[in-house]
Amino acid sequence: MKRYSATPESLIFPNTKGNPDRHFDRIILRIAKRADIPGRIEWHKFRKTFATMVAADLSIEDARLYLGHTHVETTQAYLAADDGTPAQKREKMKSMFKAFGN
């Protein structure tokens, strides 16, 4: 909160005292463990997921704006790699350019 001069009203998940809700952190960690999600779970994963979804459905520029980044290169570092197979990617390319013919 200090770094961004934030107020308790600007927190997404405040506790009853207006501070970050650390109990919520523990809930997320328990859910991740039950779901067998590998790796360390931290809030930045949610931010990265959000950025990837916005960039895919809207644009990387919209993702940049929503994340508050000055430079699009910073936003690009947040985006998840497309993990489609080469065959799936070929099919996407064919679909994208089918109007142009062979």
String of helices and strands: HHHHH
Number of helices: 5
Radius of gyration: 19 Å
Structural class, please?
mainly alpha
Describe the protein:
With 102 residues, the protein is mainly α. It folds into two domains: 41 residues, no CATH class; 49 residues, no CATH class. The protein is built from five helices and no strands. Helix 2 packs antiparallel against helix 3 and helix 3 crosses helix 4. It is flat. The N and C termini lie far apart (56 Å). The relative contact order is 0.07. The model has no long low-confidence stretch (mean pLDDT 81).
Blueprint of the fold:
Elements: H1 22-34, H2 43-57, H3 60-67, H4 72-78, H5 86-96
Helix pairs in contact: 2-3, 3-4
Quick description:
With 102 residues, the protein is mostly helical.
Summary tags:
0% strand, 102 residues, mainly alpha, flat, 2 domains
